[in-house]
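hey so i finally got around to running the thing on that chain from the lab meeting. sorry it took forever, my laptop kept dying and i had to restart like 3 times. anyway pasting the input first so we r on the same page abt which one it is
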Amino acid sequence: MNRLELVEKIALKHDLSKAEAARILATVMEEIIATVKKNDPLTLVGFGTFKLQERPARMGRNPATGQTVEIPAGRVPKFVPGSAFKQAVNKPCCCKCEK
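ok and heres what got predicted. didnt touch it at all, straight out
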């Protein structure tokens, strides 16, 4: 599923226009990014937690040349699924799922 398909499902499920659903989704995504960027975790109980993870500098290898290179330290977003989310995706599906 992509963003447009998600917008269509939200619009249909909540009797909204696609434009309204797209604005709501954009706002949710913007707030998640803004919160995590400030190094504050954002927890949606039953769904999961979005947080920032620090990555230390490390040595890597350039796959094209084989030369050793230093990969600088950085910050990366991380999502930790909640227990209800994990349980939901591990339940047998009630419909025909494509694999």
